[in-house]
Amino acid sequence: MAHDGTASPTGTGNTELVRVATSEHRLARYGLIAAALTFVGLFLVLPLAAVFTEAMRNGPGEFLTVLSDPETFAAIKLTLLVAGIAVPLNLVFGIAAAWAIAKFEFKGKAFLTTLIDLPFSVSPVISGLVFVLLFGSHSLLAPWLQSHGVQILFAVPGIVLATVFVTFPFVARELIPLMQEQGTSDEEAALSLGASGWQTFWHVTLPNIKWGLLYGVLLCNARAMGEFGAVSVVSGHIRGLTNTMPLQVEILYNEYNFVAAFAVATLLALLALVTLVLKSLLEMKYSAQIAASRRH
Amino acid sequence: MTARTASLWQIRQPSVIPGFGLALGVTLSWLTLIILIPLSGLVWRSSALGWATFWELATDQRTVNALRISFGTAFLAALINVFFGVVLAWVLVRYRFPGKRIIDAMVDLPFALPTAVAGIALTTLYAPNGWIGSLLTPLGIKIAFTPLGIVFALVFVGLPFVVRTVQPIMEEIDKEVEEAAATLGANRFQTIRRVLLPGLAPAVLTGFALAFARGVGEYGSVIFIAGNLPYVSEIAPLLIVIRLEEFNYPAATAIAAVMLVISFAMLLIINMIQAWSRRRYGYGA
User: Fold this and answer.
1) Could you give the C-alpha distances from A133 to A137, A141, A157, A199, A235, in angstroms and in order?
2) How many CB pairs under 8 A join A and B?
3) Are A46 and B131 in contact (CB under 8 A)?
4) What ipTM does this complex have?
5) In this structure, is residue B8 part of a structural domain?
6) What is the DSSP letter of A106?
7) Are A135 and A158 in contact (CB under 8 A)?
8) In B50-182, at which residue ranges do the beta strands (DSSP E only) sit?
9) CB B198 within 8 A of CB B181
10) Residue B159 belongs to a domain with what CATH number?
């Protein structure tokens, strides 16, 4: 890829010729790099910088005071709770789906894979709406839910359901191509040596897929903690009770309490940065064991 | 797996690997409970409206405008992303410059940053009194609280889709093809236009479709910057939320149904592009 001044066995002139023929003029190169960097600066770096600057506008003292607000604390706790339920559920589902799809040949497999990807092509607002229609006061289930005192909408179960819906494909999508590529020979060897099904899974399959699994969980968790549209529709925005962190950001912002809104946003931005760093580390160190690094 | 012809009664080909029943059982039950039942509820609710009512709700002027704004801004944002996304991917694949690794990692920021955070950050930048907005106001350019603001938010949200679909295909390009073009007398511009870009076309189209589909449904990053003026800068997902808050479930359902139908058509097109690309070029985008 790099043809920068390293002398080839046939002489530098030849290398130079190849470089000129297969790369752009120096000015074009600099121009393209400048355009790309400006674009990244305007759309990615500056927004991130704005979050931190606005949160610190009145100094770190106020930043900390704002964060120690009990409502903010409740929002953080709810976000952790929701992600703590949704991510493991989708982890188990993802492993099961990948096991069925990657290790076996059966009819309707392509269709099943398409169905798993479905939540990616549904607007987050619609992902929330479907649960409002299912459990709302006009629904068929409403009388039963009411008589049994079960509250799903405008309560934690609704938020969890909406979050599970939007994060549904993440783990499965990462594991399916990875396990398809790894094939079944390792498992067949273990089974022929007398291992049971579960032993084979724990000692052979799981070590093979652990980095890919972690990668999927990382992305699933980022989305679960940051989901806004779907959760907004089902939560009812009850302060201190059904507000997750992103919803708390919205409420504070709409009250013109900008420093507080950006302070909570800072925590979410830090989560995003940690996610990106871990993701890049996984891609760098374990690229062979991550499907996404090949497919991107 | 051996390519045995499965007899008709056989749903799956025989295998020594255990756990098919359990894994498929868990998968199907979870899929049915979380995805299929809720989505079919939406389909059932919109079909229960009856065709006349549905049509009336779907062609309401405010709804039509909202859909037009959502699809129009998403289309424009995806076009902008195709241009800058391809440039960015090219720069990341072909050139060396300081900070390249960080830029490469930053491209995924829109995947990781919650949309509400992106929304308030972009608004702060592009509002008339914001960091960049205040520079543009004297020039008479207004971004936040106009449809242009929606486009900006959707550019942010859609960027990684284009870069991450195009980048791996660019990495696979064999430099010998470019050398061959050069020895046959093509200048660099001709090589790019006639040799490189056609091979990238399926990936670019897929990236465009993904960014477009995401932009159409996007809510969190848009509502802060859009201004949300009915008929002018009100997106379809926001109108669904407004109708829900008015307890006007039929209207919300109708808008959602229209959006879903168009999104699934998009998904179908993406799959067709990929299938075509695999046949034509031997790789999926």
Assistant:
1) 8, 10, 15, 43, 14
2) 295
3) yes
4) 0.89
5) no
6) B
7) yes
8) none
9) no
10) 1.10.3720.10
Residue of B nearest to A119 (CA): B35
Kindly report which listed range (A11-20, A149-158, B217-226) carries the lowest average pLDDT score: A11-20
Contact assessment for residue B274 and residue B284, using Cβ atoms and an 8 Å cutoff: yes
A3 has pLDDT over 60: no
Query: B212-243 burial string, b = 16+ CB within 10 Å, else e?
Result: bbbbbbbbbbbbbbbbbeeeebbbbbbbbbbb
For residue B283, pLDDT over 60 is answered with no
Q: Residue B269 in 3-state DSSP?
A: helix
Q: State residue B233's pLDDT score.
A: 93
Residue B93 predicted with pLDDT over 80 = yes
Residue B261 lies in a domain: yes
Note whether A46 contacts B125, CB cutoff 8 Å: yes
Please provide residue A106's backbone torsions phi and psi, each rounded to the nearest 5 degrees. Answer: -145, 165
What pTM, to 2 d.p., does this model score?
0.90
Tokens of A250: 């919205």
Closest by Cα among B72, B195, B25 to A21: B195
pLDDT value for A293 = 56
Are A107 and B219 an interchain contact pair (Cβ–Cβ within 8 Å)? no
Q: What φ, ψ does residue B139 adopt, rounded to 5°?
A: -85, 0
CB contact under 8 A, A35 and B87: yes
Which one, of A102, A71, A98, A109, lies nearest residue A239 by Cα?
A: A71
* Residue in this structure with the two tokens 């990615």, named with its chain if needed: A44
Residue B12 sits at φ, ψ, to 5 deg, of -130, 155
Would B12 be classed as within a structural domain?
no
* Sign for the pseudo-dihedral over CA of A296, B2, B3, B6: negative
Residue B133 structural domain: 50-281
At A254-287, the pLDDT tens digits run 999 999 999 999 999 999 999 999 999 998 888 8
- Give buried/exposed letters for A258-290 (b at 16+ CB in 10 A, else e): bbbbbbbbbbbbebbbebbeebbebbeeeeebb
Residues B162 and B82 sit within 8 Å (Cβ to Cβ): yes
Phi first, then psi, for residue A91 (nearest 5°) are: -65, -50
* Residues in a beta bridge with B12: A106
Average pLDDT across chain A, whole number: 89
In chain B, how many domains are there?
1
Residue B21, in any domain of the structure? no
Single-letter amino acid code for the residue at B24:
L
Q: Which two tokens stand for residue A26?
A: 């120096």
Q: How far apart are CA B248 and CA B199, in angstroms?
A: 49
Residue of B nearest to A4 (CA): B96
